[in-house]
């Protein structure tokens, strides 16, 4: 009787299992397994075979634990080419990605399966194609309050202590900007939804996209420092050129000797 009851319950659970809960041989499981294989080949040497973190023979950490970092962190690091890292410096630079998007999705799914963490944001979270001027202006205020200390007010990046730097945001996609705020890569702080609301993040992205699309009527941005850099350019190069021309003219004019 007990065996029959267990079989009945098992069959009923199989029939009533929600569609979102994929079985062991479902597509989601296949993606996780594909990510696990990719991780073992390309990431385990630094982060450990099970993403628990790795050390060398001297006890020096070669890669931090990835348990709990979430799919968004993996998508950001791998899609920007920062991972896999070619060498360990003060900061891992951006470079062309090694994996295609399907492989990146598999790696993210595997790491996400290890422990809960920030998920890859939906497209509508960072879509600013219909942002209004008011939203862009509010994003500028939020950007100047939270981001300019490192990325400077024009989003062109800046130097930080110990050989680190805040990268320029001019070539960054809205998706990666949102993921960076969610996960806090390298020395960047985490701007969770309790720190910056999703609509605040979207406003900041709208402002950054406006900066990326901003034209330079003069031809050279000059760091977008306004009258300071423009005036410096005028004095150093403009007046310097006039002085050089005056000296050249003076050297070419023949001297008239006075009669003795």
Instruction: Work out the helix count.
Output: 11
Q: How many strands, which pairing sense, and closed or not: the largest β-sheet?
A: 2 strands, antiparallel
Global Rg: 28 Å
Strand order of the largest sheet: 1-2
Q: What's the overall average pLDDT, rounded?
A: 83
Helix content: 40-55%
Short précis:
The protein is mainly α and 260 residues long. Helix content is 51%, strand content 3%. It has a two-stranded antiparallel ribbon. Strands 3-4 form a two-stranded antiparallel ribbon.
Which features would summarize this protein structure in a list?
Cytochrome Bc1 Complex, Chain D, domain 2; disordered N terminus; 260 residues; mainly alpha; elongated; two-stranded antiparallel ribbon; transmembrane helix; electron transport
Question: In words, what does this structure look like?
Answer:
Keywords: Cell membrane, Electron transport, Heme, Iron, Membrane, Metal-binding, Repeat, Respiratory chain, Translocase, Transmembrane, Transmembrane helix, Transport. It is a single chain. The chain is built from eleven helices and four strands. The chain has 260 residues and is mostly helical. Among the domains are: 27-114, Cytochrome Bc1 Complex, Chain D, domain 2; 123-213, Cytochrome Bc1 Complex, Chain D, domain 2, CATH 1.10.760. The strands form two sheets. A two-stranded antiparallel sheet has the order 1-2. A two-stranded antiparallel ribbon has the order 3-4. Helix 2 (27-42) packs across helix 5, helix 4 (70-79) packs antiparallel against helix 5 (101-114) and helix 9 (174-183) packs across helix 10 (198-213). The radius of gyration is 28 Å and the shape is elongated. It starts with a helix and ends in an 8-residue tail after the last helix. Mean pLDDT is 83; it is low at 1-24.
């Amino acid at each position: 009787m007990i065996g029959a009851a267990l079989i009945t319950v098992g069959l009923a659970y199989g029939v009533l299992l929600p569609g979102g809960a994929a079985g062991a041989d479902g597509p989601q499981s296949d993606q996780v397994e594909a990510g696990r294989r990719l991780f073992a080949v390309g990431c385990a040497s630094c982060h450990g075979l099970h993403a628990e973190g790795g050390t060398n023979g001297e006890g020096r950490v070669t890669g931090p634990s990835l348990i709990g970092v979430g799919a968004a962190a993996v998508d950001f690091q791998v899609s920007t080419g920062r991972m896999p890292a070619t060498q360990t410096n003060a900061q891992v630079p951006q470079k062309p990605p090694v994996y295609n998007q399907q492989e990146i999705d598999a790696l993210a799914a595997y790491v996400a399966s290890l422990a809960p963490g920030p998920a890859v944001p939906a497209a509508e979270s960072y879509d600013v194609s219909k942002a209004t001027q008011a939203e862009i202006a509010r994003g500028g205020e939020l950007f100047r309050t939270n981001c300019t200390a490192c990325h400077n007010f024009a989003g062109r990046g800046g130097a930080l202590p110990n050989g680190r730097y805040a990268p320029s945001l001019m070539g960054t996609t809205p998706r990666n900007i949102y993921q960076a705020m969610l996960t806090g890569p390298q020395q960047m702080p985490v701007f969770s939804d309790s720190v910056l609301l999703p609509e605040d993040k979207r406003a900041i992205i709208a402002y950054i996209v406006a900066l990326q699309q901003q034209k330079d009527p003069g031809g050279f941005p000059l760091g977008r420092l306004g009258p300071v850099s423009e005036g410096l350019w005028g004095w150093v190069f403009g007046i310097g050129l006039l002085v050089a021309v005056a000296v050249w003219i003076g050297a070419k004019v023949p001297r008239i000797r006075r009669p003795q």
